[in-house]
């Protein structure tokens, strides 16, 4: 039987152990992880992948692009696709810092809980990989979205990057402290906290009892949580009419989704799994 080979191209110096473990659990027989990968280096890697197996065996080779720098990972992913031609291609997946799988899992769960079309959503700490993808996905689902960040210039740049990549408008709000973030979420239907692990973003008093608020989600698994007053294990828990999703509650679907995406890479040789494709799969399996 032809071995399923996954080439993990990570933009960080040290490739993600998490991504490698999930790849094995998702069906890859062998994972070849390389760190410090840049777009200009992928040509020879792609050639090695597309020329070494016949047409029927190409589906057993695939690429996974990761790393903490979303822009660099997007450039690597694009460079891979640019080297393909005709039937000389293999499937590839982009999930830098878990951006697509985490955001898609959360948005799928939120979308099951409340209608997103016409909703107002605020993504706290929305300048990072997960925050940017969550904002894009929420907007693609019909929500009016704003992202917050500590610095105006960086937040505006992130909003512009989202619009350029996905064709959706996202508002940028400078919110350097808890008080500013509390003002930013006033009137929101959905709050999504996308901060780094152990980074508190909003206090319980700032969302409890908020008029119109329907869902709060937080992808931070370590205390202090991004959203005060919820539990990391929450998965649709009702706090006085507000449904909450903690990092572990989201994480179960994220892992299931991540594994399913890896499995799909080996079904055909022409899949390119990015935000839209991964969100569609998340909505199917949520």
- The shape, in one word, is elongated
CATH homologous superfamily designation of the largest domain: NAD(P)-binding Rossmann-like Domain
Q: Percent helix among the residues?
A: 25-40%
Number of strands: 12
- Using only C-alpha atoms, the radius of gyration works out to 19 Å
Determine the number of helices (DSSP H or I, runs of at least 4 residues).
9
Task: Identify the CATH class of the largest domain.
Answer: Alpha Beta
Q: Give the CATH architecture of the largest domain.
A: 3-Layer(aba) Sandwich
| Separation, N- and C-terminal Cα atoms | 32 Å
SSE order, one letter for each helix or strand: EHEHEHEHEHEHEHEEEEHEH
- Low-confidence segments: none
Average pLDDT across residues? 97
| Major β-sheet profile | 7 strands, mixed
> Could you give the order of strands across the largest sheet?
7-6-5-8-9-11-10
CATH topology assignment of the largest domain: Rossmann fold
What does this structure look like?
The chain has helices at 17-25, 42-50, 70-82, 99-113, 129-140, 152-166, 178-184, 247-265, 275-285, and strands at residues 5-10, 30-34, 61-66, 91-94, 120-124, 144-149, 170-174, 190-193, 215-218, 235-239, 242-245, 272-273. It has 286 residues and is α/β, with parallel strands linked by helices. The chain has 2 domains: 5-94, Rossmann fold (3-Layer(aba) Sandwich), CATH 3.40.50; 100-250, 3-Layer(aba) Sandwich (Rossmann fold). The strands form 2 sheets. The protein has a 7-stranded mixed β-sheet, with helices on both faces. Helix 6 links the parallel strand 6 and strand 7 (170-174). Helix 4 packs across helix 5 (129-140), helix 4 crosses helix 9 (275-285) and helix 5 (129-140) crosses helix 6.
